[in-house]
Amino acid sequence: ERLERLSKEFRRDYVRELRRLLKSARIHRNRVAIVIYGLINFESYFKGREAAERLRESDRTLYPRLDTTYKYFISFHPTYRRNLIRLAWMVNKELYAMVEELNREFVQQTEHIQLRYSDALATADLGRAELLHPIDGWHASVEGHNVLANAAVSDLAPSLEFLRIGDSHRPKPR
């Protein structure tokens, strides 16, 4: 099936580049933390997009560039959304498996490298129209960027701890 092939090709290409990065990190002795974030939650995103489309139907001044998305991304058209949601899920599954594989190959043998998969973006709720940009309804709005940033940052604690960054690693005042 086409989606399965695409997700496998993605993994092959991504793992090749990440393996190069890990080989370089293994040579250098400083601590390295790499977080691989899953793709955004397209199912939730499309709920927000559908809400924006409904708002535009009732008021044509809203989201004036909403339809331009379809020129650039055919897969955003309502007919193809289910496949895009499925492909994103498959890619996230591949990213997770890739991290597990590379952890066995590199990280378990190298104490100064941490490699983690995070589903923080893949589980972030983007299902409201106000999380999309008011012009194109495609890009994230300021509030949408905040949702994504908060999700990403919320999953950094294990990496910061590994890198010894934060309050627990600062010398105690005398």
Q: How does this structure look, described?
A:
By secondary structure, the chain is mostly helical. The protein is built from 6 helices and 2 strands; from the N terminus they run H-E-H-H-H-E-H-H. The chain has helices spanning about 1-25, 40-60, 70, 80-105, 140-155, 155-160; strands spanning about 30-35, 115-120.
Brief sketch in words of this structure:
This protein is mainly alpha-helical. Helix content is 53%, strand content 7%.
Looking at this protein, list some descriptive labels.
174 residues, mainly alpha, two-stranded parallel sheet, 2 strands, globular
Q: Would you count the extended β strands for me?
A: 2
SSE pattern, N- to C-terminal: HEHHHEHH
- Residue-averaged pLDDT, rounded? 93
Q: What proportion of the residues is helical, as a percent range?
A: 40-55%
Spatially, the strands of the biggest sheet line up as 1-2
- The total of helices stands at 6
Structural class: mainly alpha
Biggest sheet, open or closed, and with what strands and sense? 2 strands, parallel
N- and C-termini, Cα separation: 64 Å
The poorly predicted ranges are none
Given the C-alpha coordinates, what overall shape results? globular
Instruction: Name the beta content range.
Output: 5-15%
Calculate Rg over CA atoms. Answer: 20 Å
